[in-house]
Amino acid sequence: MTRTALQLGAHVGQQNMTMDEMRSLWRTLDANGMEWISAWDHLYEAPPAGGTIPHFEAVATLGAMAADTHNARLGCLVFYVGYRNPGLLAKAAVAIDHISGGRFEIGLGAGWHEWEAEAFGYDFPSLGTRFDMLDDATVLIKSLFTEERTTHHGPHFRAENASMVPGPVRGHIPLWIGGIGEKRTLGLVAREADGWNSAYLSVDEFIRLQGVLEQRCDEVGRDPATIEKSVNLMFNLGVDEASAARAAAQLATDWGPLADRIRDGALLGTPDQAVESILAYREAGADLVNIAIRMPVEPEVLDAYLTHTVPAVRAAAG
């Protein structure tokens, strides 16, 4: 399989912005050549702050994103399968796919934000059970996307002779699995996914986990080159050294005890320095590199990334 050109995208947390501000941001990203734009599936802000930061729900948000953009692939990285019946989620995904003209891709995951689940009355079982739910939902959703009729009796979810009319625009919707669990997550990626998304990993850890994914692919007889690989990098750049120092300090404030882990997979420094960082992930095997945007972000920083960093990366990556 010939390796495709590096794609650059943005993972936009739908928090701490008005809807008008967020829609303007999507349009800017789409008009400036981002090949991927995604939202996340949370009911509260991330990192958790007790539901004190303005935040929008994912499915409704993605419908607006699909209508507002024209070029980028769109997705959610990732939907927590405990928040919605898989059949309902599949129907919503197909609707978003049609609004976008066939640009939507769905991500699924086992979830982690127990604080929001508790606040809104959702069960949040053990990690092992959530992985069982993820496995069950993935098989069901794939069948709903691709089969004329689906009957599924799983340990957590079921369907009885269910149809998906209309179906996806392209006949299928690419399915991503997000996470870095070496046994169950990467095993599920190898068996079922079109893409694997990882977040906030150092280059070395990204390389190591790709090796694990290759092992999981070997176990099921799959070519790992058929799986698209993406990485989300926290966006904490500055236009100059002083601005970069403020952005690095903000990361520490936002993430507290998790800051060291997030910092390993963050774009820090200036737009010039970001070029080298992104190219290192490309060299490590990434097909898609997303900046993870959590507002507030200084407008001139994002503008510098889009007008300077992105063209420089594209020129260097070929």
Structural key phrases:
318 residues; globular; eight-stranded parallel barrel; 11 helices; alpha/beta; 46% helix; TIM Barrel
Structure explained in plain terms:
This protein has 318 residues and is α/β, with parallel strands linked by helices. The protein has a single domain, classed as Luciferase-like domain (TIM Barrel, Alpha-Beta Barrel). 46% of the residues lie in helices and 19% in strands. The protein has helices at residues 19-31, 58-68, 86-100, 114-119, 127-146, 184-192, 203-220, 241-255, 259-263, 271-284, 299-317, and strands spanning 7-12, 36-39, 73-80, 104-109, 150-153, 158-162, 175-178, 195-199, 228-237, 266-269, 288-293. The strands form two sheets. Strands 1-2-3-4-7-8-9-11 form an eight-stranded parallel beta barrel, surrounded by eight helices. A two-stranded antiparallel sheet has the order 5-6. Strand 7, helix 6 and strand 8 (195-199) form a beta-alpha-beta unit. The mean pLDDT is 96.
Largest sheet: 8 strands, parallel, barrel
CATH class, anyone?
A: Alpha Beta
Number of strands: 11
CATH architecture: Alpha-Beta Barrel
| Average of pLDDT | 96
Summed up, the helix count is 11
Helix content class: 40-55%
Task: Categorize the overall geometry.
Answer: globular
Q: Outline the low-pLDDT stretches.
A: none
Q: Based on helices, strands and strand pairing, what is the structural class?
A: alpha/beta
The topology string of helices and strands comes to: EHEHEHEHHEEEHEHEHHEHEH
Strand order of the largest sheet: 1-2-3-4-7-8-9-11
How many structural domains are formed by the residues? 1
CATH superfamily: Luciferase-like domain
What is the CA-atom radius of gyration, in angstroms?
19 Å
The CATH topology turns out to be TIM Barrel
User: DSSP strand (E) fraction?
Assistant: 15-25%
Give the termini distance in whole angstroms. 18 Å
